[in-house]
Amino acid sequence: MRILSCRTCPRRPTCLPAYASGECLAAFEDSVRQRELPEGRALVHQDDPFLGYYAVRSGALKAVVAASDGIDGVIMFLYPGDIAGLGAMTHRWPKSLVTLGPTRLCWIPEHAAKRPELAGRLTSLIEDRLQRMYRARIMRTSLHSAKRLAAFLIDAAYRLAHAPEAWFELPMLQREIASYLGLATASTNRALRELQQ
Amino acid sequence: MRILSCRTCPRRPTCLPAYASGECLAAFEDSVRQRELPEGRALVHQDDPFLGYYAVRSGALKAVVAASDGIDGVIMFLYPGDIAGLGAMTHRWPKSLVTLGPTRLCWIPEHAAKRPELAGRLTSLIEDRLQRMYRARIMRTSLHSAKRLAAFLIDAAYRLAHAPEAWFELPMLQREIASYLGLATASTNRALRELQQ
DNA sequence: CGCGCATTTGATCGAAATCAATATTAGTGG
DNA sequence: CCACTAATATTGATTTCGATCAAATGCGCG
Question: Number of Cβ pairs closer than 8 Å across A and B?
Answer without folding.
Answer: 94
